[in-house]
Amino acid sequence: MGKGALVTGTNMLCSLGVTNEEVWKAALAGAEGPRRRSYRFSDSSCVEYPVYALPDLRPAEWLGRQTAAWLSENRLLEDADFCMLLVSIRQALEDAGFSPGGTSRVGLVIGHENLGVVRLTDKFVQHQPELGRREPEIPLFRQYQHEFFNLQTFPYLFYLAQLLGINGPSYAVNNACASGLYALELGRMMIETGSADLVIVSCSDYAHVSEYLWLQEKGFVSGQNIIRPFDLHRDGSILGDGAATIVLESEEHAARRAASPISLYRGGRFVQDHWHMTLPDVSRHSYAGVISGAAELEPDREIDLLVPHGSGSTLWDRYEAAEIQRAFGGLERPLPAVTAFKGYFGHLLGASAMIETVLMLHCMKHNMLLPALNHEYPDPKIKIQIQTQAVSRPIRSAVKSVPAYGGFHAAVLFNKLE
Question: Which residue has the higher pLDDT, 151 or 240?
Answer without folding.
Answer: 240
